[in-house]
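Dear H.,

Thanks for agreeing to be a second pair of eyes. The structure we're designing against is below in token form, covering all 147 positions.
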């Protein structure tokens, strides 16, 4: 297989395997820090990279290393951060766009969550299927009866 097929049932597993092989290949490289290898192994899911750093300088350094170590055909791009210095250094993108038709929420989708960079908070949206509106709005309570 020469190309990653997205959408197939095996795609996440194949991408994860490729990611691990690629990271471990750089494990003993003197130009790569253990933290950059850890970033690839532990802070990536398929093509998403989500990590947290103690300083802007560390975020830039580790992200640049992780980007340079991806020689398995993946290209890390569309970086964003809650620090403008990091966004600029990584040629990132501004996340000032409304999400999910909510005018009061401006943020980014990350691994199925919503991330608002200005407050550095994650959130999610609940959907209640087959549950009455009265129950969702707490006007009615469902009780389990013993018989």
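And this is the sequence the design step returned. I haven't edited it by hand at all.
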């Amino acid at each position: 297989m020469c190309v990653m097929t997205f959408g197939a049932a095996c795609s996440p597993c194949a991408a994860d395997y490729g990611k691990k092989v690629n990271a471990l290949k750089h494990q003993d490289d003197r130009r790569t820090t253990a933290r950059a290898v850890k970033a690839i192994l532990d802070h990536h899911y398929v093509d998403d990279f989500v990590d947290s750093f103690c300083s802007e300088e560390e975020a830039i350094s580790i992200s640049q290393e992780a980007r340079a170590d991806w020689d398995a055909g993946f290209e890390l791009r569309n970086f964003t951060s809650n620090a403008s210095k990091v966004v600029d250094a990584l040629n990132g993108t501004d996340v000032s766009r409304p999400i999910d038709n909510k005018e009061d929420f401006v943020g980014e989708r990350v691994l199925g969550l919503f991330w608002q960079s200005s407050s550095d908070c994650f959130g999610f949206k609940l959907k209640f299927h087959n549950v009455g509106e009265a129950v969702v709005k707490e006007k009615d309570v469902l009780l389990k009866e013993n018989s």
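Two observations from my side: The helical segments are 11-25, 34-42, 56-69, 84-89, 133-136. The chain has a mean pLDDT of 77.

Warmly,
E.
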